Amino acid sequence: MAGKIYSKPIAFSIAATLAVLAGSIAMMAYPMLRAEMHPKVEGLAPLTALELAGRAIYQREGCVNCHTQTVRPLQSEVVRYKGNRAAEPSGRYSLAGEFAYDHPFLWGSKRTGPDLAFEGWLKSAAWHHAHFEDPQAVVPRSNMPAYAFLKAAAVDGDDIGAHMRTLRRLGVPYTDADLAGAAAALQGKTEMDAIVAYMLSLGKAVDRGGKGGLELDLEEKNPLAADTAAIAKGRQLFDAQGCGACHGDEAHGQEGVAPSLVDDEFLGEKGDLPDAAYFGMIKGGSDVKKQLGRPGLADGGMQPFGSELSDEDIWSIVAWLRNQKGHEAAEPPHEEAAEHGNR
Predict the structure, then answer these.
(1) In this structure, which long-range contacts are made by residues 254-257, counting pairs with CB atoms below 8 Å and at least 24 apart in sequence?
(2) Of 274, 273, 275, 243, nearest to 259 (Cα)?
(3) 292 and 192, same structural domain?
């Protein structure tokens, strides 16, 4: 009897189609309608008007074609994309709940450029402004095109307001106040401001700020200050950790991005501080500024490296910086100017 169905191709096709549809609904469609399939991290907030405008520009310019926005729970990715700096294991890779309000997801699939999932924790606004304007001036080997034209384009507040209303219909919890204030929030803002704001929002739904509570002893001496092997290692670590992307290959700083580490200023004020202050800034990041009592750059965002580097590694970097500063001080002014291209 069962074999007779094969002699009826139309009936067989209809039965097979219904069976596949029923299985698909049961295994795929129905589960996606359940609340537990759409988790949200605690305290998740929708993007602000400016951040949402930046996301739209990110999509328009095709950034997702070269950058991903998700770090998978694999040790190699966690280390490569700085997830190991998060204090809690759950913050060391991307969580599904972080993307609950994303329409569409921008996870991407190609890493011509680095993953951006944790970008809000890794770079400052000044760095991003400089990088979008001239990528090769910040990262010499970058093949990213320049986006300096974004500085001259104003953000359309009415368009973003309409975008927010649409997202609210899809379940993003924008309030009436959010919608009413969108145009005012974008008044005078450029597309460059918007895309930088979006970059700084990435990964911020989860605390990935690294371990805090660093106690500084400014009297502590660098145990590796005169160790030539440590100085050489410090140079290698400075390069390997990408410090030159902000502070320049020789730690001379980059205008509007990050300060020199070999001049007579530190954190925005004349007069140097002891080696322990440099150790603290490398280990604890910008949070250490409060203990040092100096402001630094207004929007500076030095990341902490304490979860990635041992104390010995950090002291080695400080030893190299001090050696570099001594070299600069001993170099005749005209030679130094010529070396840096100031003729």
Answers:
(1) 254/130, 254/137, 254/138, 256/126, 256/129, 256/130, 257/124, 257/126, 257/127, 257/130, 257/138
(2) 243
(3) no
DSSP code, position 297: S
104: preceding bond cis by omega (within 30 degrees): yes
**Nearest-10 crossing angle of helices 125-133, 191-201:** 130
Structure token digits, residue 31: 């589960």
**Structure token pair of residue 305:** 């490296």
What residue numbers bound the domain in which 26 lies? 2-37
> Is 326 buried (19+), middle (13-18) or exposed (0-12) by CB count in 10 A?
exposed
Q: What is the CATH number of the domain that holds 297?
A: 1.10.760.10
Residue 247 included in any domain = yes
Residue 253 lies in a domain: yes
Instruction: Confirm whether pTM is higher than 0.85.
Output: no
In a domain, 81, yes or no: yes
**How do residues 251-288 score in pLDDT, each as one tens digit?**
988 877 788 898 888 888 888 889 999 999 998 888 78
CA distances 255 to 127, 138, 303, Å, are 10, 10, 18
* Structure-block tokens of residue 40: 């949200």
Residue identified by tokens 């189609």 is 17
